[in-house]
Amino acid sequence: MEIRPVRYDHPDAVALDALVQQEYARRYGDDGDITPLTPEMFTPPHGMYLIAYDGTRPLATGGWRRQEDAAEGYAVGDAETKRMFVLPEARGRGLARRILAALEADARAAGRSRMVLETGTKQPEALELYASSGYVMVEKFGLYRTYEESRCMAKSLVAEG
Fold first, then answer.
1. Is the pTM of this model over 0.85?
2. What angle separates helix 124-132 from helix 95-109, to the nearest 10 degrees?
């Protein structure tokens, strides 16, 4: 298994994004995540996008982007996790945890102080992954902050001491 940085508009990223959108639509009964995203948002040092490959086959994805819009509830120093997804047949192998750790390390190296994310009540496995990775519930932020099913979480990227 190899985790590689790619552009958000890479063909494998586009294909996995289409699958995650189908997953959101299946779980929430809507058109998927309507958050506007561009490849530039995931370009270092303002972000990064990763894909886990088994040989040439893409299995999992995730990215982070710099996000500091106070009007939407973000704070200076925030990095936002987006598009965490693992193909159903590849789940249970720790890929999401490995991608999340790599995203956190890269965001920390880019000077970000907090990793934030938004997920939903119909994604219990995501809530469990994030809680077991040190994330805690925080005040809602972002596009879905007014949605009842939305859950926002954060984790400090700054070493305490």
1. yes
2. 50
Classify residue 144 by its DSSP letter: T
pLDDT tens digit string along 22-81? Answer: 999 999 987 788 889 999 999 999 999 999 999 999 999 999 999 999 989 999 999 999
Q: Are 116 and 152 in contact (CB under 8 A)?
A: yes
For residues 77-104, give the mean pLDDT: 97
| Alpha carbon separation from 98 to 77, 103, 104 (Å, rounded) | 22, 9, 10
Given a contact cutoff of 8 angstroms between Cβ atoms, the answer to whether 35 and 86 are in contact is: no
Show the CA angle centred on residue 112, arms to residues 115 and 132, nearest 5°: 25
Distances (CA, A) of 90 to 16, 113, 133, 146: 13, 31, 19, 33
Residues 6 or more apart whose Cβ sits within 8 Å of residue 154: 114, 115, 116, 117, 135, 136, 138
Q: Could you report the per-residue pLDDT of 33-42, keeping only the tens digit for each?
A: 888 999 999 9
